[in-house]
NADH dehydrogenase [ubiquinone] 1 alpha subcomplex subunit 6 (Tetragonisca angustula), 122 residues
Amino acid sequence: MATPVTSGLKQVKPILSLTHIEAHRKVITLYKTWYRQIPFIKANYIIPVTKEECQQKLREQFYRHANVRDLRVIDMLLVKGRMELQEVCAQWKPAATLLRYWEETEASKPKDFMSKFLSGHE
């Protein structure tokens, strides 16, 4: 009468990496590849940022995902990073899209009375 209960866990196959060490090695390789391409990106795109700012932004983007431990997620991020690099190197990505990495994500809060009044805070 009762149906057999099946296990809720399923073994998933990794996308690219079999171990965390292999995934880490691929991430470091991708980081170094991006780092080496920064001077060429600066030469191909006319963007108002320095080489040091590009290096800092690259470091920031990689540290943003530093706490990811799932191999499949790491592999997907690697695929996305490689695609992004290919788009930038082939100049398929417009400079305005590239500059979105440097735009402020939070609007600065108004400091003086007139700015607060015009923004609707007071």
Notes: The chain has a mean pLDDT of 88.
